[in-house]
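Postdoc handover notes: sequence design on the structure in folder B. Input tokens:
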């Protein structure tokens, strides 16, 4: 990892997290470099996924740790990812987000999905993902649509979390 590649992670309240990110027409050296930065920023923060809006770029690029719950994990970038099929079956698991500090909640996600995207080499790909990998991809694609995981909770739970978040974020502001 190269510290120079670390990008600042945008935190709850930053408007870029609420925008719908744009598709990108082609892969370019800039996009490849962005993916390198995103992978290193994610690893440094001990995350298992990161979406471009989280580093302030409103474009449809994500990085995902595939097989994070197995011995053989690998981090790969995906461009313009979309879910083209999902199982009816869902499960509830505890989830957190690098942009929502000190917060986690049980979120319902599809257990299995089929994804269409462009890979890091610029090739169109289609693949299936399940369990944690499927959950990460659903979470990251939500980011591309301006959705945070807490939006998927009941209004009551959201209100409690948002109140706590606003209090915590206020505390971090230096007063002079
Ligand atoms: Ni997130």
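Designed sequence:
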């Amino acid at each position: 990892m190269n510290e120079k590649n670390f990008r600042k992670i945008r935190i709850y309240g930053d408007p870029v997290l609420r925008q719908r990110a744009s598709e990108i027409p082609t892969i370019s050296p800039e996009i490849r470099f962005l993916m390198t930065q995103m992978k290193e920023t994610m690893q440094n923060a001990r995350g298992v996924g990161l979406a471009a809006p989280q580093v302030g770029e409103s474009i449809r690029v994500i990085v995902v740790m595939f097989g994070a719950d197995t011995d053989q994990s690998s981090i790969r970038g995906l461009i313009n990812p979309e879910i083209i099929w999902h199982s009816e079956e869902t499960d509830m698991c505890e989830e957190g987000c690098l942009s929502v500090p000190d917060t986690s909640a049980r979120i319902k996600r599809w257990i299995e999905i089929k994804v269409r995207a462009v890979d890091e080499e610029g090739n169109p790909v289609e693949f299936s993902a399940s369990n944690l990998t499927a959950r990460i991809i659903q979470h990251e694609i939500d980011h591309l649509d301006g959705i945070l995981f807490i939006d998927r909770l009941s209004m009551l739970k959201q209100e409690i979390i948002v109140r706590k978040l606003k209090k915590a974020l206020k505390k971090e502001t230096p007063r002079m």
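Context for whoever picks this up: Residues 3-172 form a domain with the Peptide Deformylase fold (CATH 3.90.45.10). Don't rerun without checking with the PI first.
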